[in-house]
Amino acid sequence: MLRRCFITLALALGLLTLACAKRATVQVPPRVDLHALGTIGIVEFQSGTKGNLPAFATQRFIEALQESQPGVRVLELGHVDDLSKDNGSVDHATIKALGEKYDLDAVIVGDLAVKEVRPNVDVVSMIKSMSVSADVDAALTARLLETDRGATVWTRGSRCTRTVAQVGMGGGKVVFDARDPDSAYGELVNALVNEITDDFRVSYVKQ
Questions:
Q1: Do residues 45 and 112 make contact, with C-beta atoms less than 8 angstroms apart?
Q2: From its phi and psi, is residue 63 left (phi > 0), alpha (psi between -120 and 50) or beta?
Q3: CA torsion sign, 96 to 100 to 105 to 107?
Q4: Which sequence spans correspond to the domains of the chain?
Q5: Which residues contact 61 (CB under 8 A, 6 or more apart)?
Q6: For 105-119, what is each residue's pLDDT tens digit?
């Protein structure tokens, strides 16, 4: 009886080992194939903050796209105020006009919202550099729009809280205008961008 139990256990372990050995890692394509969209334009992310944070986040977003899917053609279109002088926003008419003017198949627009800034006041640091570090709550939302109809092909948002350095204080307002944005708020921007661009990356699953 005991011998039969050992044999049964050995067979079960053997089958389990065989089943595990047969499991393979399979590559899953990205949810959004940017190459299929052709040439993509990107408008600098809009933000209510002052300084270089929006431009820095836009550049990181472009880098993430091209790291995820090398060879994707991206045309930087600049600030929204230079593209839509009437209302300062990118509407359907503006998207279509951009597509015709620059021969674009799609346009990416985004909004970088800083929800709350809680300065970590250090009097000595403020005297020396006129800047402080701060805990920042931020959210990034982006949309990918077709230029012919203005339809939304993809949209996603992300949010996080990070401590950032070199936050300027001017006129009672917080200014994101660090000389070295990467060291000042690179961690914040990277966290937002990495989450929001996950749909453009290849993933792997066990089968």
A1: yes
A2: alpha
A3: negative
A4: 25-202
A5: 42, 45, 108, 110, 142, 193, 196, 197
A6: 999 999 999 988 887
Structure tokens given for 58: 């836009």
Kindly report, residue by residue over 122-135, the tens digit of the pLDDT: 543 443 445 678 89
d(CA 171, CA 81): 24
Q: What does the alpha-carbon distance between residue 156 and residue 203 come to, in Å, rounded to a whole number? A: 18
What is the phi-psi region of residue 103: left when phi exceeds 0, alpha when psi lies from -120 to 50, beta otherwise? Answer: left
Q: Which two tokens stand for residue 35?
A: 């190459």
pTM value is 0.81
When the candidates are 3.40.50.150, 3.90.1150.10, 3.40.50.800, 3.10.20.70, the CATH number that belongs to 25-202 is 3.40.50.800
Those residues with Cβ within 8 angstroms of residue 78's Cβ, 6 or more apart along the chain or in another chain? 43, 44
Are 72 and 35 a contacting pair, CB within 8 Å? yes
Closest by Cα among 188, 205, 207 to 196: 188
Q: How many residues does the chain have?
A: 207
Low-confidence ranges of the chain (pLDDT < 70): 1-23, 84-88, 121-131, 169-173
